[in-house]
């Protein structure tokens, strides 16, 4: 028993792994839910033919499957996911076996179209609900999402499981030959089903590629849009700094009022710039005078301070020069920063010497601003402002060059913009809420600093990373689809292909199998009809045998007294008694003997004891002899017949001469009785069917239909004549019944008709063969020998 189960376990395990990996590879996007439906259909089919063995294989190789999915496809097939998947596969297999047990056990799933319909309905749409329901839980665990709709996941899994079951299980049963179909029929159904399955797979695969390409295009569009908007916002901040720097560079002295008006004009509402600041260069010698003058200009206490590492501020220590924040717009909520020496900024945040050396805008690392009560992360964008060169037209060239160098090298101060991008990022996130999620970090240093957002799930989503340079800083934007693929809204084309392709494939497979089922139905009906015909034939043979036995017994019983009567008549004749009564008795005995012979011929023909011969004979000589016998017969006194032979009739034919003669005798007797004439014309014609197979026609009609009224059929007689059937005529005329039987024995038929003149005709046909030259020579030689 173990020797039988071990190969089945190995085969089931190989098929299970192949279907699982194939489903993950073929179905895009790759997800853990993809293998549940097809593998459940596979195990259902194997369970129907092998029992519990495939379930053991599933339990044994599922850990190996989990490792393979993680290694090759980078899917997190954890314990909970695999447990639910294995339970769903086993449950669907057991439920399928329970649903179709009667169909498989009694081998009736393909015996009729009705049985096939209910069989397909149970193994496909009904059983597949198990795997389709279980993947909803697996999808939530795999995608790390507990909200949203997973209806597409349900329909997609239900579709794949149903298609796999509808195409695989019938093929498996046909291979097993449970219904004992012929090899040709099984090959036809299998080949057609495989071609149909491949066509549907190609259609669905093409649709998947189109959907994923469209999805990728939408994601790339959102990614490009996010990058463009971020760079545009940063450029807007830098443009504000450059505008303010141009003001100080163009004017020798800028008042606070002018600074506020200018800043108010360039600082748009909703901008990410929190404040614009001006920090002039103050030499150490001018510190006291600058502080005193600033108190008067700003009308508040002003002193140059510096920032400590702990965030506290103290009076600035002695140094060569200072760059205190002198103008701030707006001052409201930013007053604490007045007088702060920007040279005291930590160098890892923003080195002012780097700003001086670059002569361009420099961005700082994210920091918590002193003046920001909400402690949101912000950034400093700073630019050094140099005194523009002054050129004196009367001075010499050398003097102009020296003056230009001196003036260009003088540093006036720093323009600083305090920027907070949280509002902009939040608006951007709301704008792209239904499309993508993004997480922005400053990765200029060894440790990334968060600017906006947080880490998000990336399973079953398109994910990409954008790195942009923001004025000496590097920003990294991690962007991903907002929702996993199965939760995203699908176009009507995707739904149409999924639903239409599924039902179309099931209908195609059902039509293919219904042809085989219809063939089975026809076979059953043929068997029933054949058995009925056999029984009817046996019954007919029994009746015919009983009839033949009865006629034979009756013939024997009647011939004994008939012989006695015949002997008695002969004795009377020997004694010289030969009067009218004796002659009548003799004729009556002869008629009774002839009737008995006719009855025996009829019985033998019906029972098949008599068969026609295929002897070669002189047909023209036969007709002459027949005509002579008729004219010499006593029964033919007062009557006449004229033989009319067509030129197409050959002299020699192959047939049974004896039964042709009996046929002619019966026809002539019937014609006199039915046509009610004494003068007849017998027309003989030949019709060729094939090279040697021909039909011979005998037509009996009145010799002169218009001679007397007695030879014409009246209207009432004509109607009666046409209304008579063969059975009625047989009952009226024994001779006609014999003619019909003889013509049937010779491969022809007998029928009644009417001429255009209204006269009746009697037709008979027989099948003959034209004699070959060799047969004619042999027959002529026999006749010559007899004459010699």
From TrEMBL:
Top-level taxon of the source organism: Bacteria
Catalysis performed (reactions): ATP + protein L-histidine = ADP + protein N-phospho-L-histidine
Keywords: Kinase, Membrane, Transferase, Transmembrane, Transmembrane helix
Top-level EC class: transferase
Any single GO CC term annotated in Swiss-Prot or TrEMBL for this entry: membrane
Species assigned in the record: Colwellia psychrerythraea (strain 34H / ATCC BAA-681) (Vibrio psychroerythus)
SMART domains named in the record: CHASE, HisKA
Keyword Glycoprotein carried by entry: no
Name listed for the protein in its UniProt record: histidine kinase
Subcellular localization(s) per the UniProt record: Membrane
Domain CHASE: from-to ranges: 250-430
Keyword Transmembrane: yes
Residues spanning the membrane: 6-28, 40-73, 79-95, 116-138, 150-175, 187-204
Its EC number(s): 2.7.13.3
GO molecular function annotation: phosphorelay sensor kinase activity
